[in-house]
Structure formats: C-alpha cells, structure tokens
Amino acid sequence: MKKWALIIDVAKCVNCNNCVVSCRDEHVDNDFLPYAAAQPRKGHSWIDMHRKIRGNGPMVDVSYMPVMCNHCDNAPCMKFAGDGSIYKRPDGIVIMDPIRTKGRQDIVRSCPYKAISWNEERQVPQIWIFDAHLIDQKWKQPRCVQSCPTEAMQAILVDDVELKRLVAAESLEVRKPELGTRPRVFYRNMNRFTKCFIGGNIVAAHSGGQENVNGAVVRVLSGRTQVAEAITDAFGDFKIDGLDRDSGTYTVEAQHNLYGTANAAVSLGSSSYLGSLVLT
User: I need a labelling partner for 193 at 20 to 30 A (CA). Which of 83, 123, 204, 221 fits?
Assistant: First the structure.
C-alpha cells in the first residue's frame, strides 16, 4: 500500500512563507467537509515557520523549518480521542472529523508537536490535512508544495519499503523521534537545527601583515580522536558542522605545507566562531 509522506529540505527553505499563505488561501472561509471546517481568518497557522540562528561574529547562519501536522503512523491524537473521530486513511493522511470532534478542545493538548489548533468560532480542533480534499481530486501535490519557489518541499506517495530506503539513503530525520510517533513529515539537513558548528579563519604572516590561507587542512579532535576535517576556502575560512551541542572540549588543528600549523581549544556549548588562527 502506498502512502503519502512529506520531505522538507531545511537548507532550501528561505522563509518566503508561500507555504503558510497558500494553506491559508486554500482553507480560510472554505469548508471542505468531511475533511475540515473552514480555517479562521485570524489566529491560526496550520503550517508554522521555526527559525534557528547559529554562530557568532562574522560567521552566522539562519535556517528556517516549516512545521505542521506530521500525520504520524502512531498518532497520539488518535489514541487520545479514542472514538474514531480522528482516523488515518489508507494513504497515510490523518483526518480530524470536524463534526465528530466538535467541542473537543481537550484534543489540542494531545499533540506533542503542538500542531493542533483550536477553532473557537467552529468549536473544533484542526490540523493541516495534507490537502486531502485535493489529493482525492487527483492533485499530485498539496498546495504548499506547489507554491514553494525553492522546491524545499516534496510530497511523495510510496510504500513503506521504499520510504525506509529513502530515509536511509538521504539521511532523512523527523522531529522528536524519541516519542515513537513515527511521523510522515521528514527533513533533510535538519542538522542546521539540531547540531552545532565550529568555524574560523586561517591566516599566515605575509609582507608585514597577514594573508588568508587557501587549502589549509583543519581537523577537529576530541581527545586524540579525529571527529571531522575541512579544507579552508579562498578566504581562509572553514566551517565544520554536525557537532553535538554541549559536547565538551575539542582541539582544532590547522596545517599547511608552506605556512605551518596552528592550534586552538574550544569548549562547545553552541555553535562557535574562533576568529583568526595564525599559522607559524
């Protein structure tokens, strides 16, 4: 059985909010029973945008991550409702019946991802429905995917075997995997939210001043074990990503065959820019 999943590339998201706006354009003032009641004009974002800022000084990056209902295979909201008013379709899409869930404000707190909104006017809990009403009209993608100018979103219809292969091959991740909810919204490059980097600039003495060094080898060691390696660019900069937050003290070693070596120690709490290291 093929089921829907959504893949979001964090590195491609530029915070244009087209996905947010297209979702509102589709659902505000529009009833799509039995899929969902109309989204209210104010106070709801069925697709929300999270932001992460990393680094300091001249080396700072900002990443954005769209979040929404995960259409979990082991959905807590379904278990909490307990009466079939929230159900999973054979194609993997979770639906909150807007008639049977009427008055159930308690359902909002069942989602550990806080992806359920409460519609005070209609007195119903609501989620992003994967545009199931359009999928059932043979649309190939939900509107949020169609509206993304950077192709950061991709909706796929695959069986579980193929999905498992894609997750492994492309290093896809989900939010809060420890909960065991088995979300069907996956992320590429999620390390930009969950991991840290060490960056810096490598220079050497030249003509009474300093010159950026291209092609220096930079290694990061934990004790005597090398955990990562990078090569400086034309500006002498390096950035080593994918390190765990609050993971302790690292040694940074830089080396160039013509200009010598440099060393620095860094205690990694969050992402850190070391400034310029001078080869001698």
Answer: 221
